[in-house]
């Protein structure tokens, strides 16, 4: 380990004993003080730059599998949500709406009551037809259900298949998200590479000009004496 | 006796790769047969590097095999299974936490590297660190025979002149600040940018920052860095990317000051390289940096961006201070002369050969 270093009092720099680090640090402080007094150097700016972090693009391996905790509970790598699933409750609109709207509804109801025999007379054929249709539908469904209720395996299989399809669908969605995220990262990296390539082309153009200048403006420069 | 070297990755322009080449050339000059084996290597070296799986053809109990250890890989297993006498040169492993947000594979390899280091304990005859810091880690891991081998550095290549085109582009009166190294999270390039922001805004608007290093493999870090630069609105930041050696030398030669804010370094080769080219160095004191500085340059013990910027301005405007710093750096550089380092390695190996196996090696 070096033993000949001279350390500044604040410990900011070390240098060879031949160099007076106190004097160097005094000069450094004076320079900073001068810039501060003249208003060129603002401490807030320095702090901003010092605290500014690099913001790298995310690593696509870090994209979490958002469906896994729910689809495969117990096998998930990530922590599943601590709150259990709560189904959304349906709150139908109140039957009796308050205010003027409620009064209007009451009046309409009474009017309909008065006109009901007439309406019933007018709509009876349609009503009968609908009623018959409902009965037919009910009979149809009921007969199909009665035919299949004994085949429970079929329903179990359907249920398992359905669940698996849902899992597959969610996995496919997750993969789609991962792939899209990767594409986004690739796009950003390609943009950055394009910018680098632009800079390089600009630099190469400058080199080309410098070469041309050397060759053409000083025609004897490349010739042997 | 042949002395071969094996390593995980041989990158172009990488300090470990350069050292491996320098060691091979030095050993060959001294008359030893020496080859390099690697798992991954840059195509430039295709004729010079042999795949590590072919080592069996070269293996011999009288040979010495040197493993440059810096990361976890299958090479460790291979190294452990050959009958040759085993030596490791430990270049340190970056703590994996730095890579977690940016490169999970490398984070894993770094983590495994630490585990593999423990596995090597008791299986190698000599464990060398390229700094005292690394040697301490080896001792803590349980290696009994340890030593320090300063990174073998060939400074001759730095005698080349500046590339004329780069001179035309960047030798324009602006003050050039340099930071060399891969653009990876532990190097804290964002802190270099923060200091440069303060320097450019409050002290020298006519300044430029060179960030010379490979960003590939850390695309998200690089993207975040570029976005950070555009958010704070700092101008004239030039990312060179990976460049050939002659251009690297040009960037050094065109720079007025070297700034290093890395938080983990097993050695930090750009520091002695800057010393060699007479560029004043300011570096943050982390891991092996203080030792590599070797009493040269200016060592920062705290990260204060404004004060560092003011210090840069002070060095670049006060010629007597700059001269004192350069003098201290020239003095510090003596530690890194190639002949000395190559000879140190050879002395270790000759000593190993004469003494035979050591007791901590499991037979």
Query: CA-to-CA gap between the ends of chain A?
Result: 53 Å
Classify the fold: give the CATH topology of the largest domain in chain B. Rossmann fold
Superfamily (CATH H level) name of the largest domain in chain B: Glycogen Phosphorylase B
What structural class do you assign from the helix and strand content of chain A?
A: mainly alpha
Structure characterization notes:
The complex is a heterodimer of chains A (225) and B (363). Chain A is mainly α. Chain A has five helices and two strands; from the N terminus they run ββααααα. In chain A, strand 1 and strand 2 form a beta hairpin. Chain A starts with a strand and ends in an 8-residue tail after the last helix. Chain B is of the alpha/beta class. Chain B folds into two domains: 147 residues, 3-Layer(aba) Sandwich (Rossmann fold); 182 residues, Rossmann fold. Chain B is 42% helix and 17% strand. Chain B has a seven-stranded parallel beta sheet, sandwiched between helices. A six-stranded parallel beta sheet of chain B has the order 10-9-8-11-12-13, sandwiched between helices. In chain B, helix 6 packs parallel to helix 7 and helix 6 crosses helix 11.
Write the layout of secondary structure elements.
The complex is a heterodimer of chains A (225) and B (363).
Chain A: E1 5-7, E2 13-16, H1 21-37, H2 43-51, H3 68-71, H4 99-148, H5 152-217
Antiparallel strand pairs in A: 1-2
Chain B: E1 3-10, H1 15-29, E2 36-41, E3 49-51, E4 64-69, H2 75-81, E5 85-90, H3 104-120, E6 126-129, H4 132-141, E7 146-148, H5 164-170, E8 175-180, H6 189-203, E9 207-212, H7 219-232, E10 237-239, H8 245-254, E11 257-260, H9 270-276, E12 281-284, H10 289-293, E13 298-300, H11 305-317, H12 319-333, H13 338-355
Parallel strand pairs in B: 1-2, 1-4, 2-3, 4-5, 5-6, 6-7, 8-9, 8-11, 9-10, 11-12, 12-13
Helix pairs in contact in B: 6-7, 6-11
């Amino acid at each position: 380990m070096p033993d000949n270093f001279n350390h500044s009092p604040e410990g900011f720099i070390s240098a060879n004993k031949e160099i007076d680090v106190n004097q160097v640090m005094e000069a450094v402080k004076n320079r900073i003080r001068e810039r501060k007094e003249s208003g060129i150097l603002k401490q807030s700016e320095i702090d901003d730059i010092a605290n500014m972090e690099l913001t790298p693009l995310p690593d696509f391996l870090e994209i979490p599998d958002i469906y896994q905790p729910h689809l495969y509970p117990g096998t998930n790598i990530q922590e599943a949500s601590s709150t259990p699933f709560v189904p959304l409750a349906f709150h139908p609109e109140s039957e009796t709406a308050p205010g003027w709207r409620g009064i209007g509804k009451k009046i309409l109801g009474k009017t309909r009551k008065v006109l009901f025999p007439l309406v019933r007379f007018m709509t009876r054929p349609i009503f009968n037809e609908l009623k018959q249709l409902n009965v037919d539908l009910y009979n149809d469904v009921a007969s199909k259900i009665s035919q299949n209720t004994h085949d429970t395996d079929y329903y179990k299989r359907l249920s398992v298949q359905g669940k698996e399809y849902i899992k597959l669908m969610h996995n496919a969605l997750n993969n789609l998200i991962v792939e899209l995220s990767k594409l986004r990262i690739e796009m950003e990296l390609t943009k950055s590479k394009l910018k680098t390539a632009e800079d390089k082309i600009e630099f190469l153009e400058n080199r080309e000009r410098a070469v041309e200048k050397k060759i053409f403006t000083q025609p004897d420069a490349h010739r042997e004496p | 006796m042949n002395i071969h070297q094996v390593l995980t990755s041989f990158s172009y322009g990488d300090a470990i790769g350069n050292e491996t080449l320098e060691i091979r050339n030095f050993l060959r000059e001294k008359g030893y047969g020496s080859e390099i084996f690697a798992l991954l290597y840059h195509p430039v070296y295709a004729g010079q590097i042999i795949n590590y799986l072919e080592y069996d053809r070269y293996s011999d109990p009288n040979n010495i095999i040197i493993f440059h250890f810096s990361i976890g890989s299958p090479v460790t297993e291979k190294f452990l299974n050959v009958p040759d006498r085993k030596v490791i040169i430990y270049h340190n492993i970056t703590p994996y936490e730095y890579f977690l947000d940016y490169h999970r594979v490398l984070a894993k390899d770094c983590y495994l590297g630490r585990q593999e280091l423990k596995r090597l304990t008791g299986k190698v005859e000599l464990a060398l660190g390229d700094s005292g810091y690394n040697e301490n880690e080896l001792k803590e891991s349980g290696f009994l025979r340890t030593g320090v081998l300063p990174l073998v550095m060939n400074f001759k290549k730095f005698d080349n002149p500046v590339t004329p085109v780069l001179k035309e582009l960047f030798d324009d009166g602006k003050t050039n600040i340099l930071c060399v190294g891969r653009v990876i999270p532990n190097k804290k390039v964002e802190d270099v940018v923060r200091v440069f922001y303060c320097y450019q805004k409050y002290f020298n608007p006519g300044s430029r920052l060179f960030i010379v290093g490979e960003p590939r493999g850390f695309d998200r870090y690089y993207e975040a860095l570029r976005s950070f630069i555009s958010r704070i609105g700092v101008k004239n930041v030039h990312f060179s990317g990976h460049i050939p050696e002659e251009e690297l030398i040009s960037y050094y030669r065109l720079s007025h000051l070297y700034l290093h804010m890395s938080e983990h370094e097993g050695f930090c080769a750009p520091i002695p390289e800057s010393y060699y080219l007479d560029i004043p160095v300011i570096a943050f004191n982390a891991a092996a940096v203080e030792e590599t500085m070797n009493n040269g340059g200016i060592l920062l013990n705290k990260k204060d961006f404004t004060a560092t910027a003011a210090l840069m301005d002070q060095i670049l405007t006060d010629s007597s201070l700059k001269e004192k710093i350069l003098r201290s750096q020239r003095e510090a550089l003596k530690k890194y002369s190639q002949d000395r380092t190559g000879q140190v390695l050879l002395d270790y190996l000759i000593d190993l050969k004469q003494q035979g196996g050591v007791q901590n090696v499991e037979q």
